[in-house]
Amino acid sequence: MKKKDILLIICLLLLSCAPTVYYVLQGSLADSSQTYAVITVDGAVYKTIPLGSHSGTNMFTIQTATGYNTIVVREHEIGVVEADCPDQICVDEGFISKPGQTAVCLPHKVLIEVKADNADEPDIIPAR
Asked: Could you give the CA distance from residue 123 to residue 126 in angstroms, rounded to a whole number?
């Protein structure tokens, strides 16, 4: 191997990392002041909470026919901290704050989804 071969390999490695760097920077530079959480229970919107302008800590409980979920909103994030479902996956998911992240409790049919006004729509191929 010659010096030019090594230089070519290094350049190709750096170019292969460029898309990852682009997407990481694009996500971290997004405006978080326009993020909000949409909570749906059994497919119906239960509550919409602005996360970008939220300060302090709020806690509330969603009671369904199959159980309850205690949700905490703190600063710019939201998460389930207590639930009476058997698997506790919704509690283990922790707090979410970035657009596109979700927290789900399937036994209670509770979905928390973080969205942003300025976020691009996901790439979707419409079905006919």
From this structure: 10
Buried b (16+ CB within 10 A) or exposed e, 92-120: ebebbbbbebebebebbebbbbbebeeee
CA-based end-to-end distance of the chain: 55
Average pLDDT over residues 12-40: 79
pTM of the model: 0.67
Strand order in the sheet with 77-83: 57-64, 67-74, 77-83, 95-96
Torsion sign, CA atoms 85, 86, 92, 98: negative
